[in-house]
Amino acid sequence: MRSSVKYIILLVVLVTACQQKTSIETAEALKSPAVVSATPTLKPLPPDASPQLRKLIEGAREQSGVTVNYDPAYVAISYPNGDVPIETGVCSDVLVRAFRKAGVDLQKEVHENMLRAWSEYPKTWGASRPDTNIDHRRVLNLMKYFERKGKSVAITDQRDDYKPGDIVSWNLTTGVPHIGIVVNEWSNESNGYLIAHNIGSGAKIEDVLFNWKITGHYRYFK
Predict the structure, then answer these.
(1) How many C-beta atoms surround the C-beta of residue 194 within 10 A?
(2) pTM attached to this predicted model
(3) What residues contact 165, with CB distance under 8 A and at least 6 apart?
(4) Could you give the CA distance from residue 123 to residue 89 in angstroms, rounded to a whole number?
């Protein structure tokens, strides 16, 4: 009986971010089936694009080749501006790091928003109170935060509707939530922008926009 209780507690502690599973093997199994575009083109942003939008995209792109691992373990981090080691993380950490480059600390923003509207945030993982170590690293919390900030835009099946800097969330084929950022790298093969994300083997820039069911589309900066 004691061993069963310990096992349940361990699962609750380790549930985090993109994955509601706990093993690296599970993360590896959910790697993107797409490959990096063979000949991506870096497209210029509109002349009126805000400095924050430019920084956001820059912050997303520069994680490729730097964050080379995926680790969904629960980690105690400082607050505000806390982070896990840069070489690792989960899908939500791609957003957190990119937003910090643009001057927005999602750890602080999500926490303060949850304190104001705790009842509106999901309790899928059995949370009974806000936790600055993990709340901003959960996809469903980020979705709720963007929604509450009025940043939702239409979900469509048209590539042209997804602009650089847009945040997109999906349900993977297993039902696990995932999230990434549209960047200004263009795939000449599919005629669409690529996505910066981490789905199991580090931050990558890939053509995965329509690989899974889109559950959220957000535009924070313009």
Answers:
(1) 26
(2) 0.86
(3) 49, 53, 56, 57, 181, 182, 219, 220, 221
(4) 22
